[in-house]
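Ticket #4471: structure export looks truncated?
Reporter: QA, pipeline team
Priority: medium

Steps to reproduce: submit the single chain below to the structure queue and open the exported record.
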Amino acid sequence: MRNSHEIDYKIFGNDIQVLEIELDPNETVIAEAGAMVYMEESIEFETKMGDGSNPNQGFFGKLASVGSRLLTGESLFMTHFTHRGYSNKSRVAFSAPYPGTILPIALDKVPGNTLIVQKDAFLAAALGTKVAMHFNQKLGAGLFGGEGFILQKLSGDGLAFIHAGGTIVEKQLNNQTLRVDTGCVVAFEPGIDFSVQRAGGLKSMIFGGEGIFLATLRGTGRVWLQSMPVKKLIEALMPRGENAKKEGGFMSSFLE
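Actual output as written to the record:
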C-alpha cells in the first residue's frame, strides 16, 4: 500500500523552470517555504513543523525535525498545499530560487526508496515523503570540501522534486569512481560512497582553477550532477576586482 500521495505534475520552461503540481481532492504536496509561484482557488496552504510524513509524531519529534533543518541551513518550517475544493483537479506551482533545472524522482524506483541530495536541492514532494538530515561519515567532506558534510535524505514511495543550477547530467556508475567539483554534486543513490580528496599536487591546487579539493563518488548507482552550482554563479557575477581581491587574499594567507 502506497504511503505517499499520488500527484501529477508538469514542468514548464527551459533555463528557469516552473513545476506545476496537479492535486485531486484532499491530496497534499509539501514544499520549501517561499517556493510557491501560484495556486488555484481551491488550494489551501499551511505552514507546519516537519514534513508530515509521520502524522502521529509528537512535539519532541517535530522539534528534532526542526533542529535538523536548522543544521542543513533550510527554513524552520515547510509549507503544505492541499486541494480542499470540490473540483476534480486543482493546481499549485513552484519555482527554484535560481536558474536551472527541476528533476522529478520517483522514490519507489530508487534502491531503498531513499535518495541523498545536497542540502539546498530539495524543492517539493508528495505528502508522505520524509525529509531528514544525513551526515556524511567522511569528516573531510565538510572540513575541506565546503560541500557535502551535511546532506538531506529523501525517503518514501512517491514523487520528489529537486533542483539544480544549469543543466543536470545523470551518470550511472557500475563499481566505478567519478571525481567531481564539490559543488556540482546534486544527488546520488545510497549505493554510492561520497568523499572529498585533495586535487592533485600543490601547483595544480593553487593555479589549476579547479579548486583545492574534489568530490569522489565511488560505487554502483546513479549520480546527478549540476553544471552551474549557485556559488559559481555568484562568482561569475562578482565584479572582476572582487574576484582578484579574493584570489590575492587566498595567496597571501597561503604564503604566510
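Status: closed, not a bug. The export was complete when the record was re-opened. Leaving a note from the reviewer for reference: The chain has one domain: 8-255.
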